[in-house]
Structure formats: structure tokens, C-alpha cells
Fold ATP-dependent DNA helicase RecQ.
Amino acid sequence: MLTIGIAGAGLLGRLLAWRLSLAGHRVILCDKNPAHSQSAAAFTAAGMVSPLSELAVSERQIYDLGLRSMQLWPRWLEQLNARHLYSKNGSLVLAHAQDQAELAQFHNDLKRRLVQEPFDADTVSQAQIKALEPQLAHFQQGIFLPEESHLDNRQLLPLLCAAIVKLGGRLLWDCAIAFDNTVPTADSMARLQAHGISHPIDLWLDTRGVGAKQSRSSVRGVRGEVMAVHTPEITLRRPVRLMHPRYQLYIVPKADQHFVIGATQIESEDLSPISLQSTLELASALYTVHPAFGEARVVESPTNLRPSLPDNLPIAEKRGQYLFVNGLFRHGYLLAPAVCERIEHLLKKPLLPDQWRADFTSTGFTEADHDFHYI
């Protein structure tokens, strides 16, 4: 059994803390923010698990890892007694009549990326759209992705903290941990001692996302803006994506007829409020999906930074007692379970050297995996 310190209590940090606690390790999860904070990117996200939707605009490994996460989420939520937070009703991709070429291009991109591989993406008629989403029957054609899913991320995150504590883990809030290369700074160690942590940490996991930039110059934040709206006039059962020549809109249903609308993607680390341009683009596109959204109330419009590396792909890198895990970009809920499972597996290997890197280019677990490198 190891004593494992985890710096950063976003989705990845919480999932790893829970899984490693289940495996019998003594886990200490630290975060610079107070317990009630919702500043992590995981709170801003829509919580979609949509590997096919992302394949057209992402690397193949995002799709492969997403398929694995799609298998893991229901199992893990069962373990948390939270299966009700997971909805597997598929995704519906739509386009207005003048943008049907975008819809056709999306379908062609999927076929091109998955040559000779089966995948579920069904072209649906207006009548079939009406059966799936009665209030969207004015769309003439769409693509239905029946295997995709979404979850209630804002209810999940506090449940993970409760599960960690129940398993004997510790949560240290207002406890920023920084690293000087691969070693916690003296100030960080003083913070731990102030919380009564005096015994040595066998392994540090750095899951701080954009917060790791101070010690890892390759980390960058990518600005994303979303809107959360409420209207009693619209009911949707699944995420809906609207194809458009300039941008793609998604609408993700939440509890009590709330919806998350997103999202912009801007190469900036600006955390100021949502811009007028983004507000107009998101709101006007939403209105074209159904005019009843025109009377929706904007509940919030948060901005956040997606943790990204130069290639927008995830990586895990271990040097001695320091393990850096980062780069989930805009795919947090799509990738996190598969990445966590891989980390769990690697930490169980008794003969691994002190320095290695896994870049997740495969999803197998054999010694011959080409995504595993000694460094």
C-alpha cells in the first residue's frame, strides 16, 4: 500500500483518488480552492461521452479511449450508487436545410476515419427525428448516434469526494501544491504539515490541469464559454448537435429542463466573462433549433480553461516519485475513465522503472504496448 498525494481535485484528480482508494492505497487529495468551489473545468463541462461525435475533428486515439470510457462509466457509477446520473439515449446531429452539406460531410468523415470498421450512425428522416425528439420535428434530416451518452457532472463531482472520504481518503482544501521540477516546493510541504500531514508521500500525482503550467511550460489553457439556460417549454432526451459552416453547437439536457449550450474554443487563457460575440452566436444558434428557446432564462454563462498540451492529446509521465497526468483538453468526461484505468494498471506493475511515459496511443495493457516508453 502506498501513500499517494494528488494535487488537483478536478475530474481526473477525483476519479484517480477514488480508484486508488478502492485499490487500498492511502490517498490525500489536495486542491488550492475551497471545498465549495466550482472553478474546475469539470464543473463547466457538459458531461458528454460522445466518441463518434468527436472523431470527425479529433485524433483516432480520442475515439478509442472514448469507447473504453463508455464501457467504464456505467460500471463505475454503479459502484458509486449513482447509475441514475448516466443517460445512454444517444446523440442527435442535425443541420438546417441550407447546411445539409455539413451533415453529409460529418457522415463522410466518420466513414473515412473508420474504414471497414462497424459503427452506429444512422441517417434519420423527419419522421424518425419526430419519434426521437418530438419538438425538433421541423428538421428534415439528421444523424442518430445511438451508443453515445451523457451524465450529470455537477452531481457526480461531490459524490466522488464523499466516496473518497468513505474509503479513508483525505481531502485538503485551500491547500495549493506546487512542484519545483518534480519535487513539492517547501511552501507546499509546509501547507501539508499545517494540515497534519507529516508522514512521507510515496508518490505524487499532478492532475492540476492548467494549474500545472507554473512547473510544466508545455501546458496551455484553451478558453471555452458555455451558457446554461432553463425553459419549461422544451424537453429533450439526449444531446443535440447543430452542424453549421462556422461553428458547431451542442445542447445537453440536464435535470428540471435545464440545458447546457456550448461551446466556444478560443486560443486564449483569458478567464474574463463570456464575450458579447460568443453570447450572440450561441444564443442565435440555439434559437434556430427551436424558437421556444427565445424565452429561456440564462441561468449562468461560465468560462473556463481546458487543460491542453501542444498536440491536444493526454499524457502520463513519471519521474521518480512524481507522476504528471494532463492534456485531456475538451474531452474530460470522454477520456478520464480510460486514462485512470491505464494509470491504475501501470501503478500495479512491480518492475517498472522510476521514469516512464504513456501517451495513450493504444488502449491495451501488454508489455509490448507501443504507447509506453522508458525515459
